[in-house]
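Below is how a single chain appears once it has passed through the pipeline. First comes the sequence as given, then the structure the pipeline wrote out for it. We keep one example in the README because the format questions we get most often are answered faster by looking than by reading.
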Amino acid sequence: MESKKKSYGRLKICCLVSSLLLIIIIVVLVILFFTIFKPKEPHIANRYVTLERYKAAWPELFLNFTLGIGVTIDNKNYGGFKFENTTAYVSYRGNVIGQAPIAADTISARSKHDLNTSVTIFADKLFRQDGNFTQDFLRGIVNITSASTLHGKVSVLSLFKAKATSLTICDISIFILPQQALSICKSKGGGYASLDDKEKRNKRERREPSRLSFLIHTETLLISESQIIN
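Resulting structure:
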């Protein structure tokens, strides 16, 4: 009888110790989850925006082009980031003029993933429907915006899962005569990402020559400089 009491007492102590250890482990995991392992929104950095195919004509006002867009998704989490199928949209003054699908994928913990896509823009309708587009085209610079949102989940230690969303918006300038594209992008996950510093330094220089080059062609287009500015 006495031996049974001792066994019961040891079992009780063992259960208490086990329960205490389990509570400590849970508390530690929760603390780690909200500190070191706290889910972070992946950061999207723009690598390039290029004109892959381009066709413009005067005076019938014709413009079709394909934008090649490359971004790098930086997953700084200690767990994989799995995002769903999504779409990249290109808009002009708030109106969507093109879109491209982005296939679902998974990015490993603490790693980067390059993502490339392209969007073809048929601008013929814009000349007929939006007078601002015609004016921008004649000035030699068309400004558009691309936006994409990645919705997914971050899995930490195969125990915790949290939703994560990363948004990137790019302001893109299309230079008609030089057939060039410059972009500045902002990512919700970590600030600004854009072209390299050399491209940034040359941005202002490129804007002015493109305007001067366009004005040289005004005689051919039979459009005066005052009409272009207005």
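The two ends are 105 Å apart (CA to CA).

See the next section for the split statistics.
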